Amino acid sequence: MHADHEHPHPHPHAHHEHAHLHAAVRSRNHVAAQPEPGHGLTTRRQFFHFLMGSAIAGTSVLELAAHRAAWATAASATAAHHLFEIQKAAEGVYFAFAHPLAVINCNAAIFVRSRDVVVVDAHSRPSSAAALLAQLRREVTDKPVRYLINTHCHWDHTQGDRAYLETGHKVDIIASRATKDLLEGKAPLQTKSPLDSVPQLIEDFAKRAERSSSTAEKAFCAEQIRQLQAYREDMKQYRLELPTITFEESYLLEDAAFDLHLEFHGRAHTAGDIFIYCPQRRALASGDAIHCWLPNVADGYPRLWPHTIDAVAQLDFQYLLGGHGPMQSTRTIMRCQRNYIEELVELVEVSKRAGQTLKEMQQRLTVAKFKSLRSNGYGAFVARTLAEDNTHFGPMPPLQNDVNDNIRDVYNNLDRT
Ligand SMILES: [Zn+2]
Ligand SMILES: [Zn+2]
Question: 88-97, 233-242, 340-349: lowest mean pLDDT where?
Answer without folding.
Answer: 233-242
